[in-house]
Amino acid sequence: MCGIVGYVGARQATPLLIGGLRKLEYRGYDSAGVSVWSNGASRVVRCRGKLQNLEDKLLKEPAPGTIGIGHTRWATHGRPSDENAHPHKVGAISVIHNGIIENHLALRQELAAAGAKFSSETDTELFAHLIDRVVRSGVKDLTTAVRTALAKVHGAYAFVVMDDDDPTKLVAAKNASPMVIGLGDGENFIASDVTAILAETRKILFIEEGELITITKDSVAITDFEGRPKQREPKIITWSAMQAEKGGFKHFMLKEIHEQPRAVADTLVGRVDLERDDVNLDEVKLDVANIKRIIFVACGTSYHASLVGEFLIEGLARIPVEVELASEFRYRDPIVGPGDLVVAVSQSGETADTMAAVREAKGKGAKVLAISNVVESSIPRLADYAFYTHAGPEIGVASTKAFTTQLVSMVLLAIYLGRRNGKLPQARARELLSELLQLPNKLKDVVDHGAQLQVLARRYGPATGFLFLGRGAQYPIALEGALKLKEISYIHAEGYAAGEMKHGPIALIDEHLPVVVLAPRGPNYEKVVSNLSEVKARQGKILAIATRGDTDIGGVADEVVLIPDVAIELQPIVSVIPLQMLSYYVADFKGTDIDQPRNLAKSVTVE
Ligand code: F6R
């Protein structure tokens, strides 16, 4: 993880670096630091903890200058501490790094044997030593020195290097960690993602694997690691910087929950074709007739969306589907190949495990479709086809609007496949498509009724554990509800298939355990109500999510949250929202750090 940012131009670098890091703090917040050059030397200011600590420190130790680099850290090698905070400086060389140097142990031994003295436990410092040694051996050009040092490093990285002896340029290198360049007028930027520099420029160069970049205030040169020049046209980003601001909400997560009607509407734009009762996925061009099986690979919340995808695609297109945790997929020599469509689902498009699963699948001859929220991120670029959700930047670490737009993508994909292979009757497609178009208004109805969840959160928030139950496509929503609660409120929660409850978790039930049951109308309703009665008989406290108009459920449940009636296929998109809100308000009452929960980072670029 970690966030990197660099600036070279005519303006003061520090405020721009801090502004960028503020947007990147979701990538890690164990420590932060900057290195800014002026009057012959760079000044490194860094400290443990959140960016605010660094800002406070910079008030006492200002770092003036018009070229600099900044970093926010999610610790991998070396605990969170002042010494391990980036930038790391050795001689005249300052380095920031996102990623992991895999051969760090061998490098540390080699450098120590050559007399290097280390001031941190990090792998990053080793790279600064390597460059310093190359420079001291007589290589004065920084780009050449970085290229030479890179030859000794294996692993994942986005490095940015600054040299006190050549303070006109920054040199950067990328392998498997994200990096973009922002083009300005007489100034240029480097960052982990576009949100960090969107307030300054929308002209972006996306950097690819194995590229070395040298930027000055007036130029950007991209080469491969052998020094061969590469050409790249800038892309113009149309997100507004406002989309990455809190907009009056207490937390990004709450803002993003409220943005879901808009995010879903944006994801549908141009994709619903009511004239042909079909889905328009021109960007994907799948060879549907030759798809024998679909395998989803994903992590965390995106994995839960994939489980809903299984239900939808098997139901509407009758194609066999498997869903794999990306972090497990490639470690068991999976049976995958031509005829399989692997669908990699990743909000960030950068998750290392999902990326590795995509490489594995492609290497074995499968076609890969990426579903991602971040345009031009690594996974869609690696895939054969890319389908983008249009949720806009998701800043809160706990995923909300990215999830609901992933679910919408699953519905679109299932209809698309079903219409092409003839398994989905036109009339059913028409019904679903017109319901999809009404969905944003229904979601607005759900978010507008958030006050009830606030009351329930206050009532049940003191519990030390929660159980979430669901059947069919509501089972992944139970998993997602439990994950949301765990990650932001630090309360233990389990998601369970309702039918499995009596095979174990029923032992947990007593009057202290809130059980959140997903019970919208549908074929599973009666069975879920039976499970509810089993909970009731053991004095469990039941919070039911049910369809508006259900007058029976109040007889068994202690609390009922009513959601609008929608087609079964769309129910998960609606029913997850009360769970997101419940988690949010429980965490808010507990006073946890909702947007940046402990130990987590938004983009998990380590395996
Ligand atoms: C949970 C959450 C994580 C991510 C997971 C995968 O709220 O956000 O579980 O879903 O780290 O991330 P992406 O989708 O970016 O691959």
Written overview of the protein:
By secondary structure, the chain is α/β, with parallel strands linked by helices. The protein has three domains: 3-245, Glutamine Phosphoribosylpyrophosphate, subunit 1, domain 1, CATH 3.60.20.10; 255-442, 3-Layer(aba) Sandwich (Rossmann fold), CATH 3.40.50; 449-590, Glucose-6-phosphate isomerase like protein, domain 1 (Rossmann fold). It contains 17 helices and 27 strands. The strands form five sheets. The chain has an eight-stranded antiparallel beta sheet with strand order 3-2-4-1-10-9-11-15, covered by helices on one side. It has a seven-stranded antiparallel beta sheet with strand order 5-6-7-8-12-13-14. β13 (220-224) and β14 (229-230) form a beta hairpin. α4 crosses α5. The termini are close together. The structure holds fructose -6-phosphate. Residues 299-302, 346-348, 351, 354, 398-399, 483, 487, 604 line the site of fructose -6-phosphate.
The gist of it:
The protein is an alpha/beta fold. Helices cover about 35% and strands about 25% of the residues. The chain contains 17 helices and 27 strands.
List the helices and strands and how they pair.
Layout: E1 3-8, H1 13-24, E2 31-38, E3 41-48, H2 51-60, E4 67-73, E5 88-90, E6 93-101, H3 104-113, H4 124-136, H5 142-150, E7 155-163, E8 170-175, E9 180-183, E10 188-191, E11 203-206, E12 211-215, E13 220-224, E14 229-230, E15 235-236, H6 252-258, H7 260-268, E16 272-273, E17 278-279, E18 293-298, H8 300-317, E19 321-325, H9 326-329, E20 340-346, H10 352-363, E21 367-372, H11 378-382, E22 385-388, H12 401-420, H13 426-448, H14 450-460, E23 465-470, H15 474-489, E24 492-497, E25 514-519, H16 525-536, E26 541-547, E27 559-563, H17 571-590
Parallel strand pairs: 18-19, 18-20, 20-21, 21-22, 23-24, 23-25, 25-26, 26-27
Antiparallel strand pairs: 1-4, 1-10, 2-3, 2-4, 5-6, 6-7, 7-8, 8-12, 9-10, 9-11, 11-15, 12-13, 13-14, 16-17
This protein binds fructose -6-phosphate.
